[in-house]
């Protein structure tokens, strides 16, 4: 796996998640209200639901189906019913390009 351009920064809407697949890895990419871009695993660890269809609140992404919220920074669930974290991927912004390598996970 190698780093790939997934989209233009200008393609992302603030406080919205977009699903991308990079080298077979599904991820939710979010431009938060502070202008930071985050990439986390797209599948809720509780219900096998796409997190990109969820709701952004600050630096959390909430699963629309059962309400589990995940930290965009750590991937850790912040409430039940999920108790397993989702992976967090390193994001590089190069000009207007959002570049993500699914093999580079952020460990916190």
UniProtKB/TrEMBL annotation:
Gene3D superfamilies: Rieske [2Fe-2S] iron-sulphur domain. One of its GO terms (molecular function) is metal ion binding. It comes from the Bacteria. Keywords: 2Fe-2S, Iron, Iron-sulfur, Metal-binding. PROSITE patterns: RIESKE (PS51296). The keyword Cytoplasm does not apply. PANTHER family: 3-PHENYLPROPIONATE_CINNAMIC ACID DIOXYGENASE FERREDOXIN SUBUNIT (PTHR21496:SF23), FERREDOXIN-RELATED (PTHR21496). Residues 4-100 form the Rieske domain. This is Non-heme iron oxygenase ferredoxin subunit. The keyword tRNA-binding does not apply.
């Amino acid at each position: 796996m190698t780093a790939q351009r997934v989209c233009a920064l200008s393609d992302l809407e603030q406080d919205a998640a977009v699903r991308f697949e990079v080298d077979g890895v599904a991820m939710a990419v979010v431009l938060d209200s502070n202008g930071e871009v985050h990439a986390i695993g797209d599948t809720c660890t509780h219900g096998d639901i796409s997190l990109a269809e969820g709701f952004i609140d600050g630096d959390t992404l909430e699963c629309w189906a059962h309400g589990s919220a995940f930290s965009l920074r750590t991937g850790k669930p912040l409430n039940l019913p999920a108790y397993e974290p989702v992976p967090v991927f390193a994001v590089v912004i190069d000009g207007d390009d959002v570049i993500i390598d699914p093999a580079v996970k952020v460990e916190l």
